[in-house]
Amino acid sequence: MPVMFNGIIMINQKWLTTFLKLAETGHFTQTADKLFMTQPGVSQHIQKLENQLNTQLIQRFGKRFELTDAGMQLQKYGEQLLKQQEQLLSDIQLDSAFIGECRFACSGSLAMWLYPDFIDYQLLHPQLHVSIEAAPNKRIVEQVLNNDIEIGIVTQFVSNSELEVTPVGFEKLLMVLPKSVDADDLSFETLLSLGLVSHPDAKHYLQQVMSCNFDDYSADDIPLTSYVNQLNQILMPITKGLGFTVLPEFAVNSVYEQGNITVANLPKVVKEPLFMIRKKHRPQPKRYDWFINRIKTLVKS
User: Fold this and answer.
1) pTM assigned to the model
2) 3-state class of 66 per DSSP?
């Protein structure tokens, strides 16, 4: 019975090796000598391979032969396969700091903050390939556990025996206001009059800021002025004097120059912790070392 994988016949590697050597030498005797086989053994491998593939691979005439069209196709495939295997063996034995794919996931705001530095580093080392996905905490954890990414950064501690969780810093939450608003004398009435420029995480962020600085009120007390789910558009209405919002500091720094907006100078600064997560028992390639150190530097507070 032929070996099957997902319904596809797997070519016998020993028979394929014999065929490739025969195609290379053009002689059964030389092939047998090079593979430490008997000539009948070589013939048997070719016959078995033809039976497995249900096609003729060589056309014999006297003591010589020619490859059929199918045989030429198989030779080309086999040679490519050998090159791929050689490259794979080289790649898996080489743990270079400057070659390979680097896969990360974090919040959208943090991705905007980290990505430019990552790309600058990739420009110095073109054989690195950086991938950053913006995702919520739950999705990031799933991706790490499924080996879809190597390193994740989340804002909540994750209790999972399969993960290594390392505190790396904090992300400040900033209340962003139009430039015309007095950032040093902010009242709840001013927030009511401005209204919230909302986004997917706005209520969550706002409630944290409110509970520390306006504890008599709730985020639900603030009327909605606008909503947008594109991170790079959230501050646009505020630059025009419309509404306010709450965003992580990294998003504010990445999206707009400070000229058209101001940040509330609140009595209590609100920070969200940042945790780096990775598979606990998965060896970490050297190419991630620079990125991990850079992340820690950029988010350190």
Assistant:
1) 0.69
2) strand
